[in-house]
């Protein structure tokens, strides 16, 4: 069971500015009063009642805490402390100040495959470590890959957000709908292509890409997980670890198509803002509805807890924490 303190977090930490927000709460800068060390606090709203759909189930928060406690690795966000009050759980975690990896890359004029591999290697080391503990992240996406300090010559990768992560048990099959649908395009044909593993390296985007990089991608886009490269196998693939001088030279000559990358990143950011505005508007309308009713109105109680889930949401807002396993 996760060690969760019942004291008031504010007795130990001074709460500062908002650093980011997710579906279940905010992440804020916090200052440890005793040591004057800066950390980040992830404030997670707890579900008020079993029937409510707002907030997180306590067991889901406990799972995130337990997983973070078991993952002490240079490329995984470290957990320092956990506090619980009636309404929320606060995770005190290491402060990651370098922003998202993709934003850092998008600011660059060029990026060779060799430079990209430096980042990828660190992601693979973090993921490989998780897998040695039988932990699957289930939500690896650009937003969850951050940099410890982007001003360093070789910035350090930190993997964040273990809200959907699961510790898998030997011999048990895990089935879940978890993930961020923003990256699961809801266009029917795209979905068919994903299920059927139908893809091609389009000329427009892949002219500057090395054959080794394409081989690496092909070995990951394999439906059967047994046949798919593991994180450790990825680390010894010749694209990541070249065997010959020629392979190494190819990597440094090949580069990332920055025009497409910047376009992709801008579109991703736009979608994220759209979803945030949509969610805020929805909550605002709900508050208005609640205020216009009497407190005795049973629907008012419903609207405080559940109603926001009754309307159709854009795909990216249906991110859920499911614990279904079979
Ligand atoms: P989501 O619903 O998007 O998965 P979440 O509620 O699980 O989010 P996180 O993804 O963990 O929350 O954090 C939300 C945002 O807060 C991140 O995208 C990031 O910008 C910021 N953030 C998270 N952890 C840290 C940290 N340790 N240091 C600095 N900023 C952070």
Automatic annotation (TrEMBL):
For ATP, which residues are the binding ones? 42
User: Looking at the record, which segments are called Disordered?
Assistant: 293-326
Arranged from A to Z, the UniProt key words for this protein are: ATP-binding, Kinase, Nucleotide-binding, Serine/threonine-protein kinase, Transferase
- Give the UniProt entry's GO cellular component terms: cytoplasm; nucleus
Q: What is this protein called?
A: Protein kinase domain-containing protein
Family statement drawn from the similarity comment of this UniProt entry: Belongs to the protein kinase superfamily.
Q: Which GO terms describe its molecular function?
A: ATP binding; protein serine/threonine kinase activity
Composition bias of kind Basic and acidic residues appears in: 293-304
Organism of this sequence? Oncorhynchus tshawytscha
Q: Does the keyword Cytoplasm apply?
A: no
What is the top-level taxon of the source organism?
A: Eukaryota
Annotated GO biological process: intracellular signal transduction; positive regulation of apoptotic process
InterPro entries, alphabetized:
Kinase-like_dom_sf, Prot_kinase_dom, Protein_kinase_ATP_BS, Ser/Thr_kinase_AS
Q: Which residues form the Protein kinase domain?
A: 13-240
């Amino acid at each position: 069971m996760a060690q969760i303190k019942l004291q008031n977090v504010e007795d130990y930490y001074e709460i500062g500015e908002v650093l980011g927000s997710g579906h279940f709460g905010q992440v804020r800068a916090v200052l440890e009063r005793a040591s004057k060390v800066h950390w980040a606090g992830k404030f997670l709203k707890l579900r008020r009642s079993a029937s409510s759909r707002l907030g997180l189930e306590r067991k889901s928060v406990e799972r995130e805490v337990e997983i973070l406690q078991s993952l002490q690795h240079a490329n995984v966000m470290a957990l320092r402390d956990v506090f619980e009050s009636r309404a929320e759980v606060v995770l005190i975690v290491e402060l990651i100040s370098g922003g998202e990896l993709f934003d850092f890359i998008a600011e660059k004029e060029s990026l060779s495959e060799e430079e990209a591999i430096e980042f990828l290697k660190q992601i693979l080391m973090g993921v490989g470590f998780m897998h040695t503990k039988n932990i699957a992240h289930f939500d690896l996406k650009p937003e969850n890959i951050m940099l410890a300090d982007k001003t360093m010559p070789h910035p350090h990768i930190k993997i964040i957000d273990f809200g959907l992560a699961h510790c898998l048990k030997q011999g048990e099959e895990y089935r879940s709908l978890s993930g961020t649908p923003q990256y699961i395009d809801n266009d029917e044909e795209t979905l068919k292509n994903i299920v059927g593993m139908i893809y091609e390296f389009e000329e427009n985007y892949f002219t500057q890409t090395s054959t080794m990089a394409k081989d690496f991608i092909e070995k990951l886009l394999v439906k059967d997980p047994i046949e798919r490269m593991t994180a450790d196998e990825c680390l010894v693939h010749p694209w990541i670890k070249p065997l010959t001088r020629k392979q190494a030279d190819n990597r440094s000559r090949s580069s990332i198509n920055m025009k497409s990358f910047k376009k992709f990143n801008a579109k991703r950011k736009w979608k994220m803002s759209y979803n945030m505005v949509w969610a805020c508007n929805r909550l605002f309308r709900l508050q208005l509805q609640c205020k216009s009713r009497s407190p005795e109105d049973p629907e008012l109680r419903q609207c405080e807890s559940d109603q926001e889930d009754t309307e159709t949401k854009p795909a990216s807002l249906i991110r859920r924490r499911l614990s279904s396993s079979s």
